[in-house]
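Shipment paperwork, digital attachment
Item: protein structure file
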Amino acid sequence: MTDLKLYKTIDATSENCAGPIGELSSALNDAYVGEAVAIILGDDATRDDILVWAKRTGNEVVENTSEEGRHRLVLKKVK
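Attachment content:
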């Protein structure tokens, strides 16, 4: 991921359900193809929802890490 341009980082640690997906979707719509958006989450269910959403929309998950109850996902805009 060293040459991947990060367009934006979203801190959604205090949110859940559809809110973070909406923010992520909007940021990826604004990003150029090949750029990435990082999102920080505070719960497992939202992380799982975003992973399913990414697969369904064709965006590539290039990072999926967890530490101390926080999850960091980085999604690359593919199309």
